Amino acid sequence: MTDPLFIERAGHRTWLKWHRGRRRASDPAFSGTRITEAMRLGASVEVDLVIHADHGFAILHNLTLEEETTGTGRVRDTDGRTLRQLQLRGNDGAPIAERVMLLEDLCALLAEQKPHPEALLQLDFKEDLAALSPEIVHNFAVTVSPVARSIILSGADPSANRLLTQSAPLARIGYDPCYGPSLDRLHQTGDYQAFISDALAPAPDAAFIYLAHEIVLAAQDSGFDIVAPIHAAGRKVDAWTIRTVDGTTLPQVERLLALKVDQITTDDPEGLHRALVA
Predict the structure, then answer these.
(1) DSSP letters along 172-230, please?
(2) Which residue numbers delimit the GP-PDE domain (predicted)?
């Protein structure tokens, strides 16, 4: 079986990003086994970062523990030792053998099991600038710097992204504008050109702009190619998130491929690759 890394159409390569470390839909989120597999193969893979009580980061999506782990309460109020003892939950909500990782655990794995040169680990910071203290920023730098060449930091707050990546200069930076005032204006006006201008301005160093795939396709339906001006600005486009592979999503993916997005975030890279390449 060919590893689900990318799809090529008309000479353009679109990477399949393993959302929350999943290779296939049945995989649990944030499995260290899957994440290191992805990085060894040269995949693009995404995990989330949430601040914990010891001024570091847990590899989790939610700000509270109940849904994703066997713990309870806020991640921000839970120390790293306690987090490491918690089991992750699978897609059915049942505990699995793998435990919660901290960012330093994941970076240690990457330092030990050298990533493929093309592998890219997206760290998606789920909070904002107000959540960052000097100690948190320092700990991020110490943790990420040894593997920073394989890292891209993303999030919805460009100021937070910039502060963290400045502390680890070899890490790349990305920006997701699909939240907040810019998105509100887009819903009110339908002005996709203004939306993209708003997206590019606050993140001049962003290598990737992350766009909800629904926005990309709605723009096309309105006669506007939202990908082209981002490419013209020297950035790449990630379209997120294709959660299932079925008769509804496959035509959407074909449209995204025709628009030459650079990356598609999906919960089922293997299933999507099989459907489009086999």
Answers:
(1) EEEE--SSHHHHHHHHHH--HHHHHHHHHTT-TT-SEEEEEHHHHHHHHHTT--SHHHH
(2) 37-270
36, 47 contact by CB (below 8 A): no
Q: Which two tokens stand for residue 162?
A: 């910039």
pLDDT in the model for residue 184: 85
In a domain, 62, yes or no: no
Cα 153 to Cα 160: distance, rounded to the nearest angstrom? 10
Answer for the pair 259, 229: CB distance below 8 angstroms, yes or no: no
CA pair distance 264, 171, nearest whole angstrom: 21
234: left (phi over 0), alpha (psi -120 to 50) or beta: left
**DSSP assignment of 48-82:** EEEE-TTSSEES-SSSBSTTTBS--SBGGGS-HHH
The answer to whether residue 55 sits within a structural domain is no
DSSP label at 150?
Answer: G
pLDDT tens digits for range 97-132:
999 999 999 999 999 999 999 999 999 999 999 999
- Number of folded domains that form the chain: 1
Q: Is 63 within a domain?
A: no
The CATH number assigned to the domain holding 181 equals 3.20.20.190
Question: Which residue range is the domain that position 192 belongs to?
Answer: 6-49+104-277
For the chain, the 3-state helix, strand and coil shares in percent, each to the nearest 5, are: 40, 25, 35
